[in-house]
Amino acid sequence: MNHRKKAIVLSSGGIDSTTAMAVAKSEGYEIYSLSFFYGQRHSLELEAARKVAGSLGAKKHLVFNIDLRTFGGSALTDDIDVPKGRDELDMQRSIPVTYVPARNTIFLSYALAWAEILGVSDIFIGVTAVDYSGYPDCRPEYIDAFENMANLATKAAVEGNTRIRIRTPLIAMSKADIIRRGSALGVDYGITHSCYDPTQDGKACGRCDSCLLRKKGFREAGIPDPATYIG
Description:
Radius of gyration: 17 Å
Strand content: 5-15%
Order of helices and strands: EHEHEHHEHHEHH
CATH superfamily: HUPs
Number of domains: 1
């Protein structure tokens, strides 16, 4: 019988979630990877997430379809231009149009349901409150609130069989620190995908917030960025 501790890891196929998965693996967890097709224009990330799950030896990788284009309201799920060429001050000034309403709440809720089925106490999510685009559902106070809710809302927690923990190993790390940490753990960032507005053949635009933060992270980490950018 397999008695390894288990963890669910939310995986977008990007740098942060991939590094979070590598951290979970380094802590001895058996990995259950969870990704979503939610109508995102950068759905190429799902192929990256599949490769990441395989690379890091995940026990299982699930992809849920919850098409948020039904609601729209985001440059990632609606006919709204993805911002390009913004500097860091612009990124920090306000919540950008690439914010997908309630996305992390939706994703964590699915992870919570799967955790009850698997008997899992630990859910890893690669949020960071340092180098990010101002999303409110990446903040420590949000994570704390969701964890409190999870332990009020689930049968396993209420009956005292477990306590749900939302693990955020990267939350106080810069993008450069995350890349250094992942590199030390042997992460292959060449299989990850970050761009919000890629070409059909998978090349990154190089100018959206996510691309710019990725480039900055690799530059500051002193590690070559393996992504392929337009031009």
